Description:
alpha/beta; Archaeosine Trna-guanine Transglycosylase, Chain: A, domain 4; Transcription Regulator spoIIAA; Rossmann fold
Amino acid sequence: MSERREGSGRGKPPRIDRRKHRAGGAPRQARIAPAPTVREGVSGPDIAIVSSRAATRLAQGHPWVFRSDVVERPTVEAGCVRLRTPEGRPLGHALWSPQSEISLRWIDAEAARPGEAQWWHTMIGRAIARRAGLRTQASALRLVHGEADGLPSLVVDQYDRWLVVQLLSAGLDAFRDVIVDALRAHTNAEGILARNDPSARAREGLSRDVELLFGTVPQQITVHEHGVQFLAAPWDGQKTGAFLDQRENRALVGRIARGRALDCFAYHGSFALHLARGATEVTAVDVSAPALARAMENAALNGYTNVRTQVGDAFEVLRAWQRAGERFDTIVVDPPAFAKSRASIDAALRGYKDVNLQAMKLLAPSGQLFTASCSHHVGLGAFLDMLRAAAADSGRRLFVRDVTGHAVDHPEVLTIPETGYLKGVLLEAAD
């Protein structure tokens, strides 16, 4: 699609906005809001003075303060600081990241300093207690989900007897030893690995690395969820070793699977394994041959003989099968995040529509399609609109059977939209 160029027409004089000009052609001076006056005695080395806009955002339940809303910066290194308005009103405590665009992450409103070990021990204990009921369903789960658990930029995943953590801000990284001690006390973990390789750490001025923080952690860990086993790869796998946020969606797919099944963007085959429980045959498609080799290891681990793999680009493979007249009774489309930023939303929606359109065409009569997006920048409304457009182009009549989100150990907070990124839709062909 060609890009529209503004003002490219010929033969028309440029339009003058007379509101921007005074008599005689002198431009009107832009109004610059004066910087807020900080009351004497409010400042201090461990105090961040934030704007009224930031104070309002905090009051509405969002914990982030951006660099542009810091009126006076603390002079201490990364860690825990106190928050104040320019008038001196206390706003609690926050994690301070001097180099980050997200300069402050609010953590507590109490007057007592939350940087003490007991505070971390209490907060981590509360987060873990919320997941107590999941242990009968799975041995791999998220124990701490960052902002959603009141512990901004901290991720803790459990894989059987081992933990994998991510410390994603400079302010949080200052407390790594305290965090490790609290996790050991609450879990009796045999080892704790830091997967500190996400790009977010570079924006914080932190190194990107994988580091053993305590004990030993195996290269592979056998875990189970809803009756299925698979190998997690904590040292070099995606995320912290596996995609734990899709656990309940995989169980859903396992319950509805039948006939000939297809898992697109299969990676290590986690959806394919659940499909194999009810389908007569499963084809797992992924562009990575090594990933599909791991998928077959996982199938063998469960004793499944009805799983096969197809190496290739899912877009091309689905289009070729559609032309060949192939049909599937159960299809899963779970691609990686297509929208890494707001600027890529339109391109992402085109990609989602393309692959879902092909999947819809491949559905057998009464077949079911589970499709998902993990792009935070593509909201549920936009995702549903995309599916409507794809359904219209496919010529198929499709029922919406379910709309899903994250696994329950990845809670979404209404006032923190960044905690919500995963959305899934289960469709059934009416014809």
